[in-house]
């Protein structure tokens, strides 16, 4: 057993009695109530999910394992010459809540390399799809195609025991995380670079190997590390995390669950917004016909979007009520590495203007930018300009968070998820009576 798996087991054994006690002794304690508005409005703010991996405060933003974004970056080990921590060290942190030491990181790097071999038929599956297939379909199809490899499902059919289910879920989760960089880079090179595939370099860490397979020079290795960590986890209520959790609750394995979660990420109100931001910017620049972007013409274009009944991509959030710290982290990177980039300047101008426009329009509860408002601009700078690929990058990062959650879901024995639906007649009856009485 690796040191990470050993440590995870100790953490799981320490945590289980807390969940069991809450369930047994305090199961009937009320923590929330649900209004008609919430039942009709996408269950916003209804507190009915539990995860200790991250918590999203509307005012402060995300904390992963109790640490905000700068603290997370600061507490984890970095490779020599790197500005951002290795994804391998983050995997240890997100699973256990502890920063690994150098030996532990080395062991995870070796373990990932061992697991990273992608079965050849996965590439056949990708190649069999029409070239104009969206890369998110390629990614989730590739993941689903590997379901036959699931150790969890094998365990299910051969002497399954609930209290040991996390062990094979951990194996599947680790296999998947280790394989995703090569699958994502293959999709990119196959679809956009005439199929000129670059083989992995086993000497490199997760982020550097991804940069190498994509064909991008330094500091893209650090961009990759930053990007995957920033996009990893945002509580369990967001659509991709919740879908993964829901599918996993049926004792579907990690391949089914992550494949489904990534389909949720592919929606324009969620992860696809990073592609939409670049699409909006390109159309805006076309309309300008070579003129310089100014606060005035950006403002006019934002109003055009709103007046056409569309959303401003990259702005707003279901939970956050401030600028997303993940946006700020990317802005900070851009200020340091690409201060004169024209697209960065435009993203900053939009940031200056859009919150005012959205506030004036008065619909959104949060006029501030989210993670997707800045991410495409950095990718574009380093040469990744095929913006329908951006959600795949989000997906590789998000996989780390949702798979860590799946391991813990099985460790703590979370049951089949099954909220209750009601009818419109019932809502009208309860509305007239001033609330549900039964
Ligand atoms: N532009 C225009 N209108 C917006 C808006 C935006 N960026 N954000 C919210 N609104 C509108 C909503 O469409 C809604 O309008 P209706 O009442 O006509 O339906 C109203 O404001 C109230 O919405 P809200 O309560 O503030 O926001 P929600 O929790 O319903 O939705 C989100 C959150 C992210 C879907 C929404 O802000 C949005 O559509 N943003 C643009 C897309 C985007 O950037 N998505 C990425 C989010 C981060 C991620 O998951 O990757």
Can you walk through the features of this model?
The protein has a domain at 273-381: Cytochrome p450-Terp, domain 2, CATH 1.10.230. The protein is built from 20 helices and 2 strands. The protein has helices spanning 3-26, 36-40, 69-75, 87-96, 102-115, 120-128, 135-145, 151-157, 165-192, 206-214, 220-230, 239-248, 254-265, 273-288, 295-307, 325-337, 342-361, 372-381, 390-411, 424-433; strands spanning 54-57, 61-64. A two-stranded antiparallel ribbon has the order 1-2. Helix 6 (120-128) packs antiparallel against helix 7 (135-145) and helix 10 packs across helix 11. The structure holds carboxymethyldethia coenzyme *A (CMX). Carboxymethyldethia coenzyme *A is lined by residues 44, 238, 269-271, 273, 306, 311-318, 358, 363-366, 370-372.
CATH architecture designation of the domain at 273-381:
Orthogonal Bundle
Q: What overall geometry do the principal axes of the alpha carbons give?
A: globular
Ligands (ions, cofactors included): carboxymethyldethia coenzyme *A
What is the helix fraction of residues, given as a range?
55-70%
CATH superfamily of the domain at 273-381: Cytochrome P450-Terp, domain 2
So what's the CATH class of the domain at 273-381?
A: Mainly Alpha
Distance between the termini: 51 Å
Query: Helical stretch count?
Result: 20
């Amino acid at each position: 057993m690796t040191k990470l798996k050993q440590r995870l087991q100790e953490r799981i054994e320490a945590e289980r009695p807390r969940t069991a006690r809450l369930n047994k002794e305090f199961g009937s304690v009320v923590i929330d109530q649900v209004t008609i508005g919430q039942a009709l409005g996408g269950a916003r703010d209804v507190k009915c999910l539990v995860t200790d991996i991250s918590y999203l405060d509307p005012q402060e933003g995300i904390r992963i394992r109790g640490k905000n974004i700068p603290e997370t970056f600061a507490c984890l080990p970095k490779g020599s010459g790197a500005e951002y921590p290795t994804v391998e060290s983050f995997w240890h942190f997100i699973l256990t809540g502890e920063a690994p030491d150098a030996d532990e990181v080395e062991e995870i790097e070796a373990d990932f390399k061992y697991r990273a071999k992608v079965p050849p038929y996965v590439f056949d599956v990708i190649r069999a799809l029409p070239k104009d297939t969206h890369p998110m379909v390629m990614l989730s199809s590739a993941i689903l195609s590997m379901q036959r490899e699931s150790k969890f499902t094998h365990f299910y059919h051969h002497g399954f025991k609930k209290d040991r289910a996390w062990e094979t879920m951990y194996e599947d989760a680790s296999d998947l995380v280790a394989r995703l960089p090569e699958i994502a880079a293959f999709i990119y090179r196959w679809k956009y670079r005439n199929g000129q595939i670059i083989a992995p370099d086993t000497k490199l860490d997760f982020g550097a190997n991804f940069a190498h397979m994509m064909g991008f020079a330094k500091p893209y290795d650090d961009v990759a590390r930053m990007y995957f960590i920033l996009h990893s986890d945002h509580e369990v209520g967001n659509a991709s995390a919740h879908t993964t959790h829901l599918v996993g609750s049926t004792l579907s394995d990690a391949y089914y669950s992550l494949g489904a979660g990534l389909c949720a990420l592919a929606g324009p109100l969620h992860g696809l917004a990073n592609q939409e931001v670049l699409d909006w910017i390109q159309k805006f620049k076309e309309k300008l016909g070579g003129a310089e972007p100014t606060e005035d013409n950006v403002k006019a274009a934002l109003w055009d979007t709103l007046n056409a009944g569309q959303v401003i991509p990259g702005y707003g959030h279901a939970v956050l009520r401030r600028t997303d710290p993940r946006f700020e982290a990317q802005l900070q990177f851009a200020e340091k590495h690409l201060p004169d980039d024209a697209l960065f300047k435009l993203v900053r101008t939009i940031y200056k203007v859009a919150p005012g426009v959205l506030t004036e329009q008065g619909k959104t509860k949060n006029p501030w930018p989210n993670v997707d408002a800045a991410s495409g601009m950095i990718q574009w700078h380093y040469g990744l300009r095929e913006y329908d690929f951006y959600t795949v990058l989000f997906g590789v990062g998000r996989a780390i968070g949702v798979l860590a959650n799946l391991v813990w879901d099985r460790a703590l024995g979370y049951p089949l998820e099954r909220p209750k639906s009601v009818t419109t007649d019932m809502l009208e009856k309860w509305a007239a009576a001033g609330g549900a009485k039964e």
